[in-house]
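User: Here's a structure from my thesis project, written as structure tokens. My advisor, Dr. K., wants to see whether a designed sequence matches the one we expressed. Can you design one independently, without my sequence as a hint?
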């Protein structure tokens, strides 16, 4: 791809950050847990009983925790007051 001056821009490759590495490791351990825990568990919720795989319970709990953590973090950023510049 060229810009207005005719020089080519360097191609950007896929970069893995430390967050990506952590997500890959967590995903690996969740998959390993799922393979090793294929039994079911009885869950009671709001007067209803369910038979559900243990790995589904753990995975859904993990994802809900990630979602709620992101919501709390985003809300905290919005509520944080902007820093006043010194000298003004």
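Assistant: Designed independently from the structure alone:
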């Amino acid at each position: 791809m060229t810009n207005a001056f005719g020089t080519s821009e360097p191609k950007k490759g896929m970069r893995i950050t430390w967050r990506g590495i952590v997500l890959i490791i967590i995903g690996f351990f969740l998959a390993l847990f799922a393979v090793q825990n294929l039994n079911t568990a009885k869950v009671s919720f709001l007067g209803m009983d369910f038979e559900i795989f243990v790995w589904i319970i753990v995975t859904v709990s993990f994802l809900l925790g990630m979602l709620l953590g992101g919501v709390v973090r985003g809300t905290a950023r919005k509520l944080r007051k902007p820093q006043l510049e010194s000298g003004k």
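When you compare it with your expressed construct, this may help: The beta strands are 40-45, 48-53.
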